[in-house]
Write a structure and sequence with these properties.
Blueprint (H helix, E strand, L loop, with lengths): L3 E5 L3 E6 L4 E6 L3 H7 L5 E5 L13 E3 L9 E2 L9 H12 L5 E6 L2 E8 L2 E9 L1 H10 L20 H27 L5 E4 L14 E2 L4 H15 L4
Parallel strand pairs: 1-4, 4-5, 6-9, 7-10, 10-11
Antiparallel strand pairs: 1-2, 2-3, 7-8, 8-9
Amino acid sequence: MNPILFDLGNTTAKVLDTGTNQIYRFSKDDFEGFLHDHQHREFFGYTSGTVFLRPDQDESFRLLSANDPWPLASNYRNMQTLGMDRWALCNAHFLEGYNSFLLVTMGTCITYNVVRDGFFLGGAISPGWEMRYEAMNKMTAALPRVQYSEMSELLGSDTEGSLQAGVDIALQKEIEGMITDYTSTFKLNQVLICGGHSERLPKPLKNYIFAPVNYELHAIRRLYDYYAENGTL
């Protein structure tokens, strides 16, 4: 079978047609139309914080949920509130043969996810790059909406530069500090960083493992194979 795999995020949908190996990226609002155009295909994937309707009477549509038989065990207090993107990525990396690691995702939000000895322990969620810029603009009367710049400096000499220092530079320092604390506290020797904004991180952080582009779709494929092998699709 050649399923269509999908990751329906907070802002975008990432889709892989395994029949053609073609990858699609579009707004989450366009996913319903894509689904309708391919309604006779098998779909497998998850949503991350996004509510959308399952097609009626479509047995070939498999939406992952916390109630599925996942390979990882978990100490999370309420699995129903755990973002499916965090959970799916951790499970997929575990299936690759990694028993203990820190997974950092960099999308709309930044998440830190601790897996130790085959158990998901939890982590942290913080505002992502664009969310921080958007918040400072919308929640103040005078601060402008500025953009990320790879040329941002620690010392901002004007308002734009100061905002960029407070996001581009401070966010990098935050990530470095969080990684240091998590790896030392939980004795983790592997850090995997994935997500669309991971390329913005500086060279010192490049000592960690950076997931390839579209790693989310690779993770879904790994989970699809897992459920197919165990007869739980």
